[in-house]
Design a protein that fits this description.
Layout lengths: L8 E6 L5 E8 L2 E7 L8 H12 L2 E7 L3 H9 L3 E8 L4 E9 L1
């Protein structure tokens, strides 16, 4: 994890057995990654991680692939708005730039 998000602030969500089930990496108000184990998705863990970071920041930005409908739904539910739609030449995917402001 540390090599994937080396300069990020990492916020971790643990289950009752102290196993990591989700984490959010944030770097200079940019959400570099949000991951929740599949069996723990739809339980509000992503929202809790986002809300924690929202308490610390005045605004946040991120990028998400258009085809990642689950993540897009979470971000829209948490009041992020789509600012731009671009094409990622490295992955051949459409990507949204999103922001949230207090």
């Amino acid at each position: 994890m540390a090599t994937l998000l080396p300069k990020s602030n990492l916020y971790v969500y643990y289950d009752n057995n102290k196993h990591i089930v989700g984490f959010l990496g944030e770097m200079d108000s940019y959400i570099a990654g949000l991951f929740v184990k599949k069996e723990f998705q739809t339980l509000g863990i992503g929202t809790q991680l986002i809300n924690h970071v929202k308490e610390l920041k005045n605004s946040l930005t991120l990028h998400v692939y258009k085809k990642n409908s689950k993540a897009l739904k979470v971000y829209l539910k948490n009041n992020f708005v789509i600012d731009a739609e671009t094409f990622d030449n490295e992955t051949d995917e459409i990507e949204f730039s999103m922001t949230w402001k207090k």
